[in-house]
Structure formats: structure tokens, C-alpha cells
Predict the 3D structure of the following.
Amino acid sequence: MTSRRTRIATLLTTLVVTLPLAACGDGGGTESAGGDKPFVVYFTGDYSGAVSTNNASLEAGIKIAAEEFNASGGIEGRKIVVETANDQNDPTKAVSLLQQRLSSGTKPDLVYPGGSSAVSLSLLPILTRQKVLSVGGTVSTLLNDPAKYPYHFGVSSPGKDYAPALISVAQSKGYKKIAMLYSNDATGQSSAAIYKAAVQGAGMEFVEARYEATSLDMSSQLNQLRSQNPDALVLNGYGTAALYTMRSRAQIGWDVPTYCDQLGSSFPYLKNLGADQLKGVNVVFSAATLSTSEHHPGLAGFIGKIKSGPAATGMSSTGWGLYATGHDALAVVVHAARQAKSTDPDKLKAAMESLAKPTEAPLWFNAGPAGQYLQYAYSGTNHFPTAGADTFQYVSPGTYDGDGFYSPGKA
């Protein structure tokens, strides 16, 4: 996830390296922080499934950042090299590919651990044992456990930071009972736990139902929730699951006010559904991605690089924010390395946990020009950014304009 936040080619069963390994010597690895060895970033994501476009955007953002920092000397004198693997959003496959990579005899210096929380959770125990730093955009609260995963950091707001936007709307409209439909996997269960705590904490009743991630029809679960007469519905969905839940909602003729969580909000509904199927639907987005917001001074140049790159077509479905998630994952590590004057994993971890606030516009874009949307104030007990009270807003479904900004209500 985001700020959205946050969910690519041919099926591969082996690791795909985006830059020739011959140019990498022995692959760098965390065993050495020497400037003569490249700083290897290993990105694992789904390049062939329903969310392949999302992962292509993330990868493109990381590569843009690598090019930018390499042009100014790399990371503490080490050239940044990006490797990719197609995990097909399958935790088991992701683990197998990572183990193959580690068995090569060298370690990557930094890992972007997948495009879903389920994949991230499968990889972190391995990365923790190997003392490999990981930074990603997946947002399950289970990932933010520095005692268990001391080398993992998030660059997108955790799911709990989106819930206040729903509570604000619910209280303003006088809702008393909130229903939620979510995917029966680690990501959906985490989201449900967050919204349940927020809804009940605000004195409202919470009812719930779940569907299997492979389901194509959620009508029975929606009818189960409708029978309990909720004032509003929260929908959780990842990729096409979000489309199927919305289609099922329309098929049973239920136009209850509906609020998508951060994953459900990322699906391009207006490109796949008619206005009659979206009656009462609302999506949540970071203010940073809206065209009316104040923008980072480096954002225009970043958007230009996206539009001229090989993954430019993804801009219309993911906006610039997902590219920035990939970019920012590397940028925050570069900032920490400059502070630590080292790429040693333990020194980088320590620097991340005491990250100095940039005196000028930060190296990362999703935080806004002054870091007002997301603050990377990591600590020994919190490895995720902190959002402001007005960072996330519910708007009507829309589309992205030519520069990747979200335009609510516009097809």
C-alpha cells in the first residue's frame, strides 16, 4: 500500500536480473560495505498476475531512483544495481526465489519484499535471520514489529492511518452500524482488525463477513451483511477482487454508502463499471496525489521520467504515487546511509531509527514538499511512517489525469 498506501511480462520460474550480473562482480552483498562492490537492491513482485501493472510501477520507481543516485555517486560510493524476481504474488514462490538468490553466496543489500503483505510476511523471517535490510510499501500492522523484524521498514502509511478518515465521515453522517467485507487472507484480516477497532472505539457497532481471495462472486456475503441493516459498508479488495466485490454489490441491488479501504480504493472502477454500479461508492486517497494539493518541487521532473520510461502506460491506472512508493523506498535508505556514512546493515538500521528530518524538500515524494503528508519518524518501536490528521480523504471514484494526479468523479 499508501500513500496508496498500498497493490509486472512473462511467467518466470527463476530469478530475473534486470542488469547483467557480470557487471556486479560477486553481487555486492551485505558482507561488505566496500565502495568497490555494487549496492544490490532485490525487488520481488508479481509480473504476470492481476496486479502486474502495480508491480511494474513500483519497479520503475526504484530504477528511476537508482539512476538518480548513481548519477550523483551512488550510495556511499557504491553503484546501485536493481535485480527483480517474479513471485506471482505467491508467498511460497517468493520464499523459494529468495532462498535461491541467497544460496548464490552473496546477499542483496536491500530487499523490496513483495507487492502484498502476505508475501512480505513470508519473506521477513528469512531476511531477519540473514540481517538483510528491507523496505516496502505493504501495510499490514503485522509488518510493523521491530522486535520480530528489526531490519524491516515501511514507506507507506499503515492501514490504521486510513481508518480516521472513515470515522470522521461516519460521525458527520450519524452512522451507528458499520459493516465490512474483506478478503480471508493476512492482508484482509489485518485491515478488518484495524477498522473494527476504530469503529468500536468510536462507539459504533461493527459487523463483518469475509470471502476467499479466489472468489468471483461475493453476493452471499453481501446479503448476509445487508440483513443486519448497517448504515455503511467498508470494502476490502486487492486487484480484481475489488472489481468482483463491487459487481456483486451491484448485482444484489445494494446501494448502501460504501467506503473502500486503501487496497480497494486503488482499483480503476470507472474504467470497468458504470455510474449506476458505483452509486454511493467512495474511495480513499492521500491528499498528496490529488491535483489540488501542494506538490513536491521535484515531482514534475519525476513524473517526466516516468512518462518517458518503459512503464509509462501504468500511469493511467496507478498514478504517480505507486511509482513514488518504489522510488521512496530507496530514497529513504540513501538518506539514512548519508547520515550513517555507511551501508552496513546494522548502521543503516540505527540511522533509520533516528532519521534526521531533511532541512529542505525530502528525497522522497509521497511525503509532500515539507513532509506534511507522511513523516518518516522511525524509532526502535515503530518502523512505519506517520500520517497527518488530514492526509487521507474520501472522494468519489475517478481517474488519473495525464500527469498521474487523481481526479475524483472524472472518467
Remarks:
- The chain has ten helices and 15 strands.
- Residues 112 and 387 are 21 Å apart (CA to CA).
